[in-house]
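WP5 quarterly update. Target: ATP-grasp domain-containing protein. Source organism: Sphingobacterium athyrii. Length: 297 aa.
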Amino acid sequence: MSEMISILGVTRKNRFSPNHVGNDAAIFNEVVLKLTEKGAAVEICNEDEFLASDSVKQGNILTMGRTKTLVKKLQSLQNNGVHVLNSGFGIENCFRKNMTLKLLEGGIPYPKSIVISTVADMQSIFEKLKGKGVWIKRGDFHAIHKEDVTFAASLKEAQHILNEYALRGIKEAVISEHLAGDLLKFYAVRDTDFFFYFYPYEHNHHKYDLYEQINDEVVHFPFDLADLKQVANRAAEVLDVHIYGGDVIIDPNGDFHIIDLNDWPSFAPCRAEAAEAIAQMVYHKFTEKNQNAERTS
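Structure tokens (predicted):
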């Protein structure tokens, strides 16, 4: 008989699921169903309900939440012994500026990138990141609107985009070099064998239409899949996330750079397999931590 564990599940606000509201809800619900089948007692609430609650009766939280106040509450609960997946610290690490700095510091292959104020002059930055152009990304959070990750082919265009960020109240931006090559998307679950990848241009993944226009069609450059899995796992460790996905550019030599990594993406093309892997990992982690806590109490 499986050990009964109690879990509070916190869903994601729709505004943090651009183009994926249904898919995000679907993977979360399927994971909860799998956990219930394994014998866990799961209570579900949304982000607002979680923030409004004075206390949490469960010792385990499974969350897709991203609201900054929610993340701080998760971190406080973790510091007081509550087990949280993805970690509140990991979710915060995936905010664009944090992710960029941590991946670069951690030696993860990542595009040359510079964090700047949105009231800065772009000229010196644009000259340092020579190439076809640069990507400008809001630094304080994930992409919520399509303008939050924008390609600029010229200095004038880059400065205009940066100025627009400043007008929107975004104080910092990440400026990254443009890398030519195949764009590949992956989904993974840390501490499991689950790893799924695909080429989004070939699956009508409209989020990437602009990138395809800039970068041309997929060539299918050969690459070392085992190496990619290892690097992706290392990136997840650096950021302290277990349920994650990302985007990679593979160049003609088979070298690759992770250009984005997100906490708990939609897993839409591989939902059934991913849900089982996530549920197994979550159940194992929570059970293991509860047993360790009992031994030390």
